[in-house]
Write a structure and sequence with these properties.
338 residues; alpha/beta; 15 strands; 25% helix
């Protein structure tokens, strides 16, 4: 099969990616897995430099979001076989040959920028019928990251407030919508001046130009909210890092949470705000969570945000675009026509 593979030397600002033939065999399939004929995948900034990407793999394949069609199932993955249960006792839906699926492939395995890939049953869900494969491939990593930060760790309750920094990016755009779908009473998003209308279109109650102040608090105040003691938010999802992450602690209520996507908060900052919870978390695949996300998509509560679609052969150029930043949503690679 053909695949987009990272060739030596080690990843640089212009990684040596080539779409070429590989002799890699995907069979026999591992237990509780399926073989997917890939239609589309999407890329994540920085993924080529993650330790998980290169460990024990000579020519790693990027693109851990996948949308495609099941063409083979392992013996224990047929619709008649019992499903492996998750920690909460629930099991993902059964999958069969011909099913259109989407999901997030674990980072310690090859991704989906290839004609075929292997997905575990626990990583996948049926693709939303209302989305194309290209649209579906833009959803899993971003939506699951937002879910696991805001809902699982942040503990979002109906009526609470959420602030998302970098709200126009892949994760940020999903987070804005998921916060609303999960019942947030007020959602604030930050971005550049040119992205504010886009952020409002995602459901933001307040769109903040991050350049209008030296700190996050000042920028929010310039947009019309002072965020005094009684106005601070319950949860911040920070997709930016650096000074923006550190400023996030100033706008969160005691007992609230700063959820770190870009990088962990420095110890000195966490110690200055001992009543604010903080965690840096790498998203984990979850077919079960995707099933709820699919339901929200079909109900019109969540939409896929695609910055652009490029053919998989242009994967190297796609990573160049990704590195420049300021994308609105995800960059998707089309592997084959739907």
């Amino acid at each position: 099969m053909k695949a987009l593979r990272l060739h030596p030397p080690a990843p640089t600002a212009d990684p040596n990616l080539k779409y070429d033939e590989t002799q890699q065999r995907l069979e026999p399939l591992p237990q509780d897995s399926v073989l997917i004929r890939v239609h589309a995948t999407s890329l994540t900034q920085g993924e080529l430099s993650w330790p998980e990407t290169t460990k024990d793999r000579e020519y790693p394949i990027p693109g851990h979001d996948v949308s495609g069609i099941v063409v083979e199932v392992s013996a224990s993955t047929s619709s008649s076989a019992p499903a492996a249960e998750h920690d909460d006792g629930k099991a993902p839906s059964a999958l069969a040959i011909g099913d259109e699926v989407y999901g997030l492939i674990a980072f310690n395995r090859d991704g989906a920028a290839a004609e075929y890939t292997v997905g575990l049953r626990s990583e996948l869900a049926l693709k939303p019928r209302s989305l194309s494969h290209e649209q579906a491939a833009a959803v899993p990593l971003s939506a699951l990251t937002a879910w696991q930060h805001i809902i699982d760790y942040g503990g979002l309750k109906a009526g609470q407030s959420v602030l998302v920094t970098g709200a126009a990016g892949g994760v940020g755009a999903s987070a804005m919508q998921i916060a609303k779908a999960a019942g947030a009473g007020r959602v604030i998003g930050t971005g550049s001046s040119g992205s504010l209308d886009f952020i409002r279109g995602l459901g933001a109650d307040l769109a903040v130009d991050y350049t209008k102040g030296n700190t996050l608090r000042e920028a929010v105040a310039a947009a019309g909210a002072t965020l005094g003691v009684d106005e601070k938010v319950d949860i911040v999802l920070d997709c930016v890092g650096g000074a923006t992450l550190e400023g996030s602690f100033e706008v969160v209520k005691d007992g609230g949470a700063v959820c770190c996507v870009a990088e962990p908060a420095r110890l000195e900052v966490r110690e200055r705000f001992p009543k604010v919870r903080s965690r840096f978390w790498i998203v984990e695949p979850s077919g079960l969570q995707l099933e709820t996300i699919t339901q929200w998509i079909e109900e019109g509560k969540l939409r896929s945000i695609v910055d652009r679609v490029l053919p998989v052969e242009e994967g190297r150029e796609a990573f160049r675009i990704l590195a420049r930043g300021h994308n609105r949503g995800k960059i998707v690679l089309k592997v084959r026509d739907s």
